[in-house]
């Protein structure tokens, strides 16, 4: 694997771990560079300046060794360059979709996959947004001859932020920029625009009529399972039907009462996962000798929980907060501290209270090192953390703060830092004097740790409960769970709930699930690369136990650990993995940020590998055992569709897939679909029904 030849970490002057070159933020302000005293800002209008920071990598590729890239561009609705796509595989050298060892005729295979999978991205809008030109070319189509070609690629329409994707800087702002394209406007026209709150989720589901155009079944159980988990499975669907919608949501909102699965218990095989930062520092030489990389094991464990945990809504919210309050796993200090940040900040408060999460994060070495707060003092102030607390982690770039607020906040937060891997407050480095930040005022007259810490925490709670923060969290949550263009009525309702319940997460989610906008949004979200792959593992029933006869050899990791690391590396290739964004803005959460023929095909091929049981450190359900065989091809396909995409297909879709096997609906087939079972299952996993959530 790519990580096996990584040199061991070395000691840095401030006793932090440093290892191989970690990705930096591509020009992000002073990140990973010594703090410098302030120079006067060039202008005070922070909201509309376009610096070279906070820009996501254009192709979302996994970090590569070597010097950091400079000047990356977001790939937005303007489309993909001809030479390569936005995803890691690009548009050139795409893997072959055919199985070389199968001589059976493939009637219309490429065109069938194109027709099914290529439209997955755009069925969310129900408009005529078909494949990207690159994908049509791949399958022999004529990009110039398709009237829908410009729908995905034309970015000429005005954007709400008034900026191009290469200039926008924040999580919400980048989403709005993508959705300001012509393709985004088409999606908006098909999205729910208004709604109301009911007495509970089940009442909302029963009283909501789905009017949007979508290929997905308008089944509330399937819809809930698709949005509140990382992918519906037969077990999840059965649990919701047996328990009822309200009881199932209550159960998911109390994850401590949900028993750990076998796969979660096997996480004990990841040696660094439960270790404290102090233990990691003290035992780093021994861990290095064993090839243990703590910052990667926390990602491995997150992937395992997404696939196999029964605490699915909790894991969805962990992923949400990892984008909202983002600290990358791969940073100088992540080896010792990212696991603790995951455990003691994100997971501790994911379903609890956001103000508590923000306060805890600002006392955690991971965030303080990631954003250079350790280098900030009253004599040389570093503003990174103070700025991100406002711009990304609370009120948002349009939340009403000014450059003066950033400077005042940076002064107030001086004194906080890290020493010997532990959080410290250094009174001699703390600025004293009156501060005023977004309406928060305090004399801040004492450098005594007990007093100064109270002032900083009071400020953090103030911005965490600011009306702009309430709306920012509401907008982000609605984008994650409902639509790339969430209705204003829902955002307003969620913001009110956030304020009323002082940032508590469970009432916020109850409001969300009790709103008709949620239940009306069937098919309005497209899975991002990580979500697609995790959902594929879930629906195929992959087990965390090794396949019979698997020979692990002399690898340092257990079979389970090795399998998780391989999934992790595949997700890096696809461009999205837990805690993977190098900059503090987190991954974009709208489909148009992820349009890539290469990534889509790479995901399909990975689905084929899973069907073939290629990672033998896991166990698999054989394709011919996924569903009960039927004597005719049409009936068998119906059973497979219900098993893999949880609904039957239209006659046209059935004909396309049956064409892959060269049979008709009335032809007789055996349990292997006359040898085509893997190809049939793979086509279902390339369908819009599996790409949408």
Automatic annotation (TrEMBL):
Composition-biased stretches (Pro residues): 1-10
Ranges annotated as biased composition (Basic and acidic residues): 43-62
Coiled-coil ranges from the UniProt annotation: none
Composition bias type Polar residues, residue spans: 161-170
Keywords in alphabetical order: Membrane, Transmembrane, Transmembrane helix
Classification via InterPro entries: DUF1800
Biased composition range(s): Low complexity: 71-86, 140-158
A Pfam family this chain is assigned to: DUF1800
Region annotation Disordered: where it falls in the sequence: 1-107, 140-170
Source species of the chain: Micromonospora echinofusca
Membrane-crossing residue ranges in chain numbering: 112-131
Origin: domain of life: Bacteria
Entry protein name: DUF1800 family protein
């Amino acid at each position: 694997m790519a990580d096996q030849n990584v040199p061991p970490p070395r000691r840095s002057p401030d006793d932090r771990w440093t290892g191989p070159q970690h990705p930096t933020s591509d020009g992000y302000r002073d990140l990973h560079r010594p703090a410098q005293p302030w120079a006067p800002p060039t202008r005070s209008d922070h909201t509309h300046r376009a610096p070279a920071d906070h820009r996501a990598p254009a192709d979302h590729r996994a970090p590569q060794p070597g010097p950091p890239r400079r000047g990356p561009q977001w790939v937005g609705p303007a489309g993909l360059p001809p030479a390569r796509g936005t995803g890691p595989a690009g548009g050139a050298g795409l893997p072959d979709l055919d199985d070389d060892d199968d001589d059976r005729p493939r009637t219309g295979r490429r065109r069938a996959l194109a027709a099914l999978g290529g439209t997955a991205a755009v069925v969310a809008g129900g408009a005529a947004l078909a494949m990207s030109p690159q994908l049509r070319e791949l399958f022999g189509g004529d990009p110039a001859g398709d009237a829908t070609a410009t729908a995905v690629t034309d970015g000429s329409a005005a954007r709400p932020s008034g900026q191009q994707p290469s200039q926008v800087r924040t999580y919400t702002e980048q989403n709005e920029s993508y959705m300001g394209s012509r393709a985004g406007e088409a999606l908006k026209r098909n999205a729910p625009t208004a709604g109301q709150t009911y007495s509970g989720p089940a009442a909302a589901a029963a009283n909501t009529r789905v009017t949007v155009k979508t290929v997905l079944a308008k089944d509330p159980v399937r819809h809930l399972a698709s949005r509140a988990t990382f992918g519906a499975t037969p077990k999840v669907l059965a649990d919701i039907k047996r328990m009822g919608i309200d009881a199932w949501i209550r159960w998911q909102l109390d994850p401590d009462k949900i028993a750990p699965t076998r796969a979660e218990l096997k996480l004990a095989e990841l040696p660094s996962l439960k270790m404290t930062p102090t233990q990691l520092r003290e035992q780093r030489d021994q861990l290095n000798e064993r090839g243990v990389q703590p910052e990667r094991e926390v990602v491995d464990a997150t992937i395992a929980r997404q696939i196999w945990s029964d605490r699915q809504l909790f894991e969805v919210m962990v992923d949400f907060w990892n984008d909202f309050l983002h600290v990358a796993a791969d940073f100088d200090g992540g080896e010792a501290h990212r696991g603790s940040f995951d455990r003691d900040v994100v997971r501790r408060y994911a379903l609890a209270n956001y103000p508590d999460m923000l306060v805890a994060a600002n006392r955690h070495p991971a965030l303080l090192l990631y954003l250079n707060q350790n280098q900030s003092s009253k004599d040389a102030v570093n503003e990174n953390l103070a700025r991100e607390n406002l711009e990304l982690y609370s009120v948002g770039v349009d939340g009403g703060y000014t450059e003066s607020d950033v400077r005042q906040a940076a002064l107030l937060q001086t004194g906080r830092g890290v020493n010997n891997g532990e959080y410290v407050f250094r009174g001699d480095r703390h600025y004293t004097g009156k501060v005023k930040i977004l309406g928060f005022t305090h004399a801040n007259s004492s450098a005594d740790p007990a007093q100064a810490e109270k002032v900083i925490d009071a400020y953090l709670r103030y911005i965490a409960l600011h009306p702009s923060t309430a709306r920012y969290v509401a907008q982000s949550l609605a984008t994650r769970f409902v639509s790339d263009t969430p209705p204003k009525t829902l955002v307003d309702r969620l913001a009110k709930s956030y304020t009323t319940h002082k940032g508590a997460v469970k009432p916020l989610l109850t409001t969300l699930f009790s709103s008709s906008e949620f239940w009306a949004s069937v098919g309005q979200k497209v899975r991002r690369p990580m979500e697609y792959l995790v959902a594929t593992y879930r629906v195929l029933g992959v087990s965390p136990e090794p396949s019979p006869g698997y020979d692990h050899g002399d690898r340092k990791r257990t079979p389970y650990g090795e399998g998780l690391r391989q999934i992790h590396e595949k997700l890096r290739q696809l461009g999205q993995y837990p805690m993977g964004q190098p900059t503090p803005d987190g991954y974009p959460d709208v489909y148009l940020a992820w349009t890539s023929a290469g990534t889509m095909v790479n995901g399909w091929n990975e689905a084929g590998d899973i069907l073939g049981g290629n990672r033998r450190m896991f166990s698999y359900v054989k394709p011919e055992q996924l569903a009960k065989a039927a004597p005719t091809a049409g009936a068998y396909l119906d059973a497979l569709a219900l098993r893999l995409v949880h609904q039957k297909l239209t006659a046209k879709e059935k004909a396309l897939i049956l064409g892959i096997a060269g049979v008709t609906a009335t032809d007789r087939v055996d349990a292997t679909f006359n040898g085509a079972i893997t190809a049939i299952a793979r086509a279902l996993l390339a369908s819009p029904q599996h790409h949408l959530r």
